[in-house]
Amino acid sequence: MTPLRQQMITAMQMHGFSPRTHESYLDAVRDLAKFTRRSPDTLEHADLTRYFEHLVVQRSLAPASVRLMYNGIRFFYLRVLGWPTVDLEVTLPKRPQRIPELLTRGAVAAILAACDNPRYRMMLTVCYGCGLRLSEVLALRVQDIDGERRLLRITQGKGAKDRLVPLSPTLLEALRDYWRLYRPADWLFAGRAGTPLSPTGLQKAFTDAKRQAGVTTVGGIHGLRHAYATHQLAGGLSVERLQRLMGHRSIQTTLRYVHWLPSASEGEGTLDLLAQLEAGHG
């Protein structure tokens, strides 16, 4: 490992970046070195500008990919090499603003009902019932459930932040039934070896259940998180509270749901989304 690479890894660790960010940022600097055929610490602003023009024009990378590379390289030059600024003379492509195909309550209920595996069905139910990311539901431990206060603790979610999410009475009872069935000791959703399940298995379970349910909207398991947000807003939950429950760093991220759901009203909302699913299928 080169000294520069080690310095960058140390800097990212000091900033609390996730392993995925480590990998992406290191890949960005490695790709820059490959393109210029020079060590990154010998480059100048003009070299960086030429590189990003290459990404946009010649390689036609998606806007999100270009921005990820830009953030990684900018971090390297500011935090590792100590450049005072990284002001590149290149216009990064704008992110296309697309409204996702949102899941209705009926579609969510049909997907959950179509999932035959009780463990995966419970995981999908938690994804929707608490608005969790895939990585967050996989990382849940039994001790994260506070039944007395009806709260679920999300430990070190995206951005290395902990948060508490309310557990509705319906979801809490479902989790108690799940515990009585599987008796997990540590990880809430563990495989035979006692370790957390892989994301691939849950993603496949969602895709299969979606197909079995006849739901044709585009999108993967993250659609359950989108559904949680939009259904809570439709029930009157305030944007500020939804931001805290979703673990968004910026209110602007949460406000996207308001744009996707123009009829949303401000208020207390209804946190027991699962009870509404059952009522709709009663």
UniProtKB/TrEMBL annotation:
<dbReference type="Pfam" id="PF13495">
    <property type="entry name" value="Phage_int_SAM_4"/>
</dbReference>
<dbReference type="InterPro" id="IPR013762">
    <property type="entry name" value="Integrase-like_cat_sf"/>
</dbReference>
<dbReference type="InterPro" id="IPR050090">
    <property type="entry name" value="Tyrosine_recombinase_XerCD"/>
</dbReference>
<keyword id="KW-0238">DNA-binding</keyword>
<keyword id="KW-0614">Plasmid</keyword>
<dbReference type="InterPro" id="IPR010998">
    <property type="entry name" value="Integrase_recombinase_N"/>
</dbReference>
<dbReference type="InterPro" id="IPR011010">
    <property type="entry name" value="DNA_brk_join_enz"/>
</dbReference>
<protein>
    <submittedName>
        <fullName>Integrase</fullName>
    </submittedName>
</protein>
<dbReference type="GO" id="GO:0015074">
    <property type="term" value="P:DNA integration"/>
</dbReference>
<dbReference type="GO" id="GO:0006310">
    <property type="term" value="P:DNA recombination"/>
</dbReference>
<feature type="domain" description="Core-binding (CB)">
    <location>
        <begin position="1"/>
        <end position="81"/>
    </location>
</feature>
<dbReference type="InterPro" id="IPR044068">
    <property type="entry name" value="CB"/>
</dbReference>
<keyword id="KW-0233">DNA recombination</keyword>
<feature type="domain" description="Tyr recombinase">
    <location>
        <begin position="98"/>
        <end position="272"/>
    </location>
</feature>
<dbReference type="GO" id="GO:0003677">
    <property type="term" value="F:DNA binding"/>
</dbReference>
<dbReference type="InterPro" id="IPR002104">
    <property type="entry name" value="Integrase_catalytic"/>
</dbReference>
<keyword id="KW-0229">DNA integration</keyword>
<dbReference type="Pfam" id="PF00589">
    <property type="entry name" value="Phage_integrase"/>
</dbReference>
<dbReference type="InterPro" id="IPR004107">
    <property type="entry name" value="Integrase_SAM-like_N"/>
</dbReference>
